[in-house]
Amino acid sequence: MDLQVILLLVAGLLIAVALTAPLADRLGLSPTVLLALVGIAIGLTSMYLMRAEGLGRFASVANVIVNLPVHPDAFLYIFLPILVFDAALNIEVRRMMEDAAPILLLAVVAVLVATVAIGVALIPLVAVPATACFMLGSIVATTDPVAVIAIFRDVGAPSRLNRLVEGESLLNDAVAITLFVMFMGTLTGGQRLGLGAAAVSFVRSFAGGIAVGYIGARLIAGVLRWLLDMRLAQVTLTLALPYLVYIVAERQLGVSGVVATLTSGLVMSAMAQRRMSPDDWHFLHELWEQLAFWASSLIFVFASLLVPRMLFNIGWHDMVLLAVLIGAAMLARAVVVFGLLPLMATLHLSQTVNNRFKAVILWGGLRGALTLVLALSVTENTKIAPDVQRFVAILATGFVLFTLLVNGTTLRLLIRLVGLDRLSTVDQALRDQVLRLSRDRISDTVKTIGTDYEFPDALISDVIRNRAVTEPDLPSDGAALRSGEAGDYRLLLGLAALASHERELVLHHFGERTMSGRIVEEMLAFVGRLVDRIRAGDPAEYLRTARHMVDFSPRFRFALWAHRHLRIEGPLVDRLADRFESLLVQQIVLKELEPYIEEKLVPLLGEKVASMLREVLRGRHEMTGAALEALRQQYPAYAEELERRILRKTWLRREDVEYRTLFEDGVIGPELYSALRREVQLTRTEVEVRPRLDLGLETRQLISKVPIFAKLSKVQLDTIARLLRPRFAVPGEQLIRDGDHADAMYFISSGSVEVEVVGQKIRLNPGDFFGEMGIVTGQRRQGDVHARGYCQLLVLREVDFKNLLRSDHEIQMQIATVASARSMMNQRASGARTE
Hints:
The protein has 835 residues and is mainly α. It has 33 helices and eight strands. The protein is globular, with a radius of gyration of 34 Å.
C-alpha cells in the first residue's frame, strides 16, 4: 500500500511541477519559490489531515507525506548525482578554464568564509558543540543561482559573468558537501579534528574525488568512441557514470562523491563531444536537461513537504538565532562579492563587475533543495544528539525559507531598481538598428503574402501601420562605441551575424565529420570569445580576438619547450598536427562565410557595411593563410594528406546519406543497406585516424643531409649525433642576436632562416649552417638570424664544436673553407654598406 501511495504521490507531484512553470511566469515569481510554497502548503495540509479524525484513506495518505518512508540518504544517492552531473555537463570547460582562478577563489573561499562566519557567530549563543555550528555553516553555504542566471540572461549580462556565477555555484556545492561530510563524521564518530588534521582530511577527500571522477570519465569516454552512432547506448553510459563514481568514491574509498561526480561531468563535457555526432550530443543534452528538471523539482518539493515538520515548535530564541544566521551569511557573501571580485579585477584575473551586478549577486544568493536535504540527513541520523538535530533543522529550514520568500520574491524588484532590466547602450542601439533595417523588408513580405491570399488592402495596410516601428533616435552619447555613428552599430550587427553563422558552419562540418572533435571544441570556444568581444561594443576587438586564434597557444609553447629542453617529441607533434588541422578548417570556414555576406548581410545592412565586413574577413583570411602557408612549406606532404582526408570524409558522409535515401525510398532492401553501411563504416574507421606528423628529427638521418657531413662514415655520424641537439624553430623566432656571445653553431636540416648582416638580408636553406664565425674567431655575433618559417635545426655547442675540429681534420678543413668564404662575404657586405 505504501508503495502505491508513494507512486501516486510522485505522479501527483510531477503534475504539480509541470503546472508550476507557467503559473510562476504569470505571477512573476521564480519557479523555485513557487515550488517551495506548493510543497510547504501540501506539507501543512497533510499535517492537518493526519491529525483530523474520520478521514480514513486521506489520513493514511497524509501520514505518508508527513513521514516519508524514504531515508534522507536516498535523496542524496538518487537525485544529487543527476543534479551535479548535469550542471557540470553544461559547463563550457574550455571557457571556464579562462576564469579558473576567480571561480576557484569564489567557490572555495566563499564557502570557507560563510562556514567560519556562521559558526563563529552562533557558538556563543547556543549550547550545542562548536562542530555543529560549523556544520550548519557548511549546510547553508551552498547557493542556488538559477534565478540570478535566468535574470542575467534576460537582461543580456556578459557571458563571462554568467560563467563566474555558474562556476562558483557548481564548485561551492562540492566544497560545502565535502566540509559537511567531514563535520558530520566528527559528530557521529566522536573524533575531534584539529585545524591541521581537518585541512588534511579536506584536501584528501577533495583530491580523491577528483581522481575517481577523472578516471571514471576517461574510461567511459574511451568506450563512447566504440559506440559511434549508437546514441541510446551512449546516453545509457553517461547515466551510469555519475552513480558509479559517486558510490565508489563515497562508500568504497571514503572520498568526496560529489567532487567525483562533478569532475566526471566536467571531463565528459570536455571530451564526449568530440566522440559523438552533433545530433547525438544534442540528444544527450536534451535528455540530461529533462532528468535534471525532474530531479531538481522533485527533490525540492519532497524537501519542502517536510518543512512544517522541521519547523514544529519553533520559539523566540530560535528566531533570534535565525536572525544571527541570516546576518552572518549575508555579511560573509558581501565580503566575497564586494571584496574578492574587485580583488580579482585588480589582479587581472577577472573582468570588472559593476556594483549593480554585485548587488544582484549578493541578494540573489538563494538557498535551495540541497540545503534542505543536508539538513534532513542530520535530523534523520540517530547518531546525532536530538538538540543538534533540532538546531540544524530549524535554522537551516528557516534560512532557506527566508532566502526564497524574501530574497526570491524581491529579486525582480531589485533588478528594476538598479536598472538591470533595461538594455545597455550597445544593445539598445543594436535593437534600434534591427528595427530600422528590418521594418521595410517585413512590410514588403506581409504585403506580398496578404496580396497572394487576396486579403483586403485596407486590412493589410492597417496591420503594417500598426506593427511598423517609428524610426528611433540613436543614443547621443555613443559611450559604448567609438564613434556612436549608425555605421558602427550596423557593423556590430554584421560581426555578430558572422560569428553566429561561423558557429553554424563549424557544427555543420562536425556533423559532416570533416572536422575532429578536438578542433570543433577549440573553434566553438573561439567563436564564443568573438561574441563576447562584439557585445563589448568595439568592432576593433573582433580582429584582435581573431588574431589570437592563429597565435601560438600556451599548450603549443609548452610542447615546444618540452621538445627543446627535455627532447620530448610527442606533445609537439600533437600540437603541430592540431594547429595544421585547425588552420585548415578555419580557412575553409572563412571561405564559406564570404557568400553569406553577399546573400544575407548586403540586403540587411547595405553595401557600405558589407564592404567593411569583407575587409574584416579579408584580414582574417590573410592571418590564417600566412600561418597555414608557413606550415605547408615545411610539411607539404602532410598538408596534402590532411586535405585528402577531408575530401575522403566528405565522400563517405555523402555516400552514407545516399544509401540511407535509397533505403528510405524503397530502392534497396535492409540487407543490402546494412552491407553498404558496414563497408562505409569500415572505411570511415580508417579515415578517422589522423595521419601522424613526422618531425623528421631522427638525428643520424638529419646529419647525413648536411653537405659537410654527407661523406662521413656511420661511426663518424654516430659520434656527431651524440653531440648535436635538435631544435625546432617557429616562424619569426630569433635564433641569433647581434652582439651576443657565440655559444653554438646551427645546421639547417629543413626550413630556411634569414641572416641580416650590416643591413643586408641573406636567406639560408637546408644544408646551410650559420653561427660558426663567432665560435671560430671568438668574436661576438655580427648579425641577427630569424626563422623564416618552421625550421628543423641541429645545434652544436661551442665546446663540442672545438672538440670536433680537433678530432677530425677533414671536417676542420671543410668548415674552415666555408668560414673563409662567409668572412669574405661579410666583408664585402660591410664595404657595400659603408659606400
